[in-house]
Design a protein that fits this description.
The chain has three helices and 35 strands. The longest helix has 14 residues. The strands form ten sheets. A four-stranded antiparallel beta sheet has the order 4-5-6-9, with no helix packed on it. It is mainly beta. A hairpin with a 2-residue loop joins strand 30 and strand 31.
Length: 443
């Protein structure tokens, strides 16, 4: 709920946020970290994919091995989804030994369950088994990964929602299982106790006009799917109450952009997101949450818009201004992350918006820039203009040293700081004691 995880092009994994149960994979981070910390236990592993659940994480190495860390389980909350055969919390990444001899190509996390897809198209699940979410034809918990025996065919994609799982077969058929209280599976028969405990197909002709599915996103109580003909479907309860797949193409008004084909779809906590062919991001749904536990939340800003059509949010997809070259999106309970960059140069940025550790971000802001060394050199003139402003406001009696060009700027809780070209740190009206080495950031 209150943490994020991402991997770099060099295969390192970083986390940030709440660390109450070891979610950050770094014991030295304390109970939380507002800045990215390196996950421990992955030394020598080139991580290519990561996934996050409510209180746990998974990482997939390029050799097909899977690692997990975070919440292992408790008497009150039940089992965790780490897959190590016990209910112990794991403060560092630990190899899931049950996958020895099995090569994994995809991983996903639900609230308290996990799933993995092998290179042969087999599916493994483990963790909390309520409402049949593990697909083993029962409601039992599993402390280690178990292969789903009732799979009707090999799968090419597997993903988890809060209480469900969905998979796409090699022929494009969409399968769903787990909780169906509000129609989140897209199947008939929803009720308080409704569930499917084995992979169940959504009929292509009835649900998707006989088109195959190429992508699907599962949220807390709704799902979004992309068909091979470019149409987008949504169902469940996210303020829309479409209990069977409902086509979003076309919308009116405004019409869905016909010249910008949808490439990826995502679902979060009562909101959705898509990426278009030209790298733009669109979001819609609820922009508010009343409570998180005992905390009053109000506006979450997960949609990433400076201004929404109403305080409730957006009924129709709306493009996020100021973002381009979107490569990926992660939708969570109360915050959203965007990977923004140029795939040709392999430079990218991680941007986040939403409700985050009691701080609000109204629209996407850069958190991590993999090409920042170059960009800072190129934007020196911008900092020079800021410097002129600083001369007028920070120190009226003595000019800011003109021969010490500003390299970095920072803002904290009602205070600011900068780093000069010679490595000294400055705050308004006073110089910070020079450190032994030049000031650098975590990266």
């Amino acid at each position: 709920h209150h943490f994020s995880v991402f991997t770099t092009t060099s295969g390192k994994v970083f986390t940030m946020g709440d660390n109450s149960h070891g979610e950050l994979g770094n014991p030295e981070a304390g109970t939380k970290s507002d800045t990215p910390v390196l996950v421990q236990g992955l030394e020598g592993v080139n991580v290519v994919k990561v996934a996050a659940g409510e209180k746990h994480c998974l990482a997939l190495g390029d050799n097909g091995q899977v690692y997990s860390w975070g919440f292992g389980g408790s008497t009150m909350a039940g089992v965790g989804a780490l897959g190590h055969g016990d209910k112990e919390n794991q403060p560092k990444a630990k190899l899931i030994e049950a996958f020895e001899g099995v090569k994994i190509q995809g991983i996903s996390c639900g609230g308290q369950h996990s799933a993995a897809l092998t290179t042969d198209g087999d599916m493994y699940t483990w963790g909390k088994g309520e409402q049949g979410r593990l697909g083993h034809d029962n409601n039992s918990d599993y402390l280690t990964p178990h292969k789903i025996q009732e799979a009707p065919q090999a799968m090419k994609y597997l993903t988890c929602g809060e209480h469900i799982c969905m998979a796409i077969g090699v022929d494009g058929t969409l399968y769903a299982w787990g909780k169906n209280k509000v129609g989140e599976l897209g199947l008939e028969g929803m009720s308080v106790f409704a569930q499917e405990s084995i992979p169940t197909p959504l009929e292509r002709d009835e649900c998707f006009g006989d088109a195959g599915i190429v992508d699907v996103g599962c949220g807390v109580q709704h799902c979004v799917a992309l068909a091979e003909d470019g149409k987008v479907y949504i169902w469940g309860a996210a303020g829309f109450s479409h209990h069977s797949p409902y086509c979003l193409n076309p919308l009116s008004p405004p019409k869905w952009p016909q010249d910008r084909r949808i490439q990826r779809v995502y679902a979060g906590n009562s909101y959705s997101a898509v990426i278009t062919a030209d790298g733009a991001a669109m979001t819609w749904g609820k922009n508010r949450q009343n409570f998180d536990g005992f905390s009053l939340i109000g506006t979450t800003n997960v949609l990433g818009h400076r201004k929404t059509s109403s305080g409730w949010g957006e009924v129709e997809p709306k493009e996020i201004g100021g973002l381009s070259g979107i490569q990926g999106i992660a939708c969570a309970h109360m915050h959203t992350a965007f990977i923004v960059g140029n795939s040709n140069t392999q430079s990218s940025q991680l941007r986040v918006d939403g409700w985050w550790i009691q701080h609000h971000q109204l629209w996407p802001a850069v958190l991590f820039d993999s090409s920042r060394t170059t960009s800072y050199r190129q934007t020196g003139s911008v900092y020079s203009e800021v410097l002129a402003f600083s001369n007028k406001c920070w120190n009226k009696k003595k000019k800011w040293p003109q021969d010490r060009r500003i390299q970095r700027v920072y803002a904290g809780n009602s205070y600011s700081a900068v780093i000069t070209a010679d490595g000294a740190g400055w705050q308004p009206k006073r110089k910070i004691r020079r450190p032994q080495a030049n000031l650098v950031t975590v990266f």
